[in-house]
């Protein structure tokens, strides 16, 4: 996930959401998030609401739906967002494995994992430096890329180490370290819906397994193909409507729907919206 795309998408999405409206945002990557300006209230899959201000950095797990509202309708929101890959988190885990020996596998309880930086301003500075390193890494194609990667890893480890004392950190880390089958299915549908018919059979073939094996894998991860397919398509549709202001017929095409009225109804049902959609109908 591009840090530029992630940041611009989420900021635009929040800015265009009225303060009284709660909306959903599916995270296909774990992210570290810091509010630079304004304030938001956030929760994970009907968990407890958490107020985020400029004094907080929060660690949000992949594969979860976050829900948020702005604290004030007219308030400008500015965020620093850093996508954190499973590879990065596994590196951090290995570097600090001795600290996790005493911890047992904990069930995830949808609590927002945050740390307060008001007394440690250097944490905010290193977090910002890590974001700059990732941006440079995305644009860098020369032989120095390994040095940039190492520098970024040091910064990321420093930031994540401040979460070690938080009770919610270990279960959040657990849910984000591994690339699950449902993650692969979600990503494939997100990037290919509209280009081809993303059926169970096609994706099973792409993942080099039988359809029955794919079904069993997804069931073991407490989901199924239909749920992932709908979530992936609707999340992509929301991004296209909120950020790109794309016309509804085009959005339907981009996410693999031929029947536009059916798509509009599916979109409304998924996001439980009774108010008119914030998109241009043409």
From TrEMBL:
Keyword list, A-Z: DNA-binding, Transcription, Transcription regulation
Stretches assigned to the HTH araC/xylS-type domain: 183-271
Keyword match Transcription regulation: yes
GO cellular component entries: cytosol
Highest taxon in the source lineage: Bacteria
Gene Ontology MF, one: DNA-binding transcription factor activity
Pfam families registered for this protein in UniProt: HTH_18 (PF12833)
Protein name: Helix-turn-helix domain-containing protein
Species per Swiss-Prot/TrEMBL record: Providencia alcalifaciens
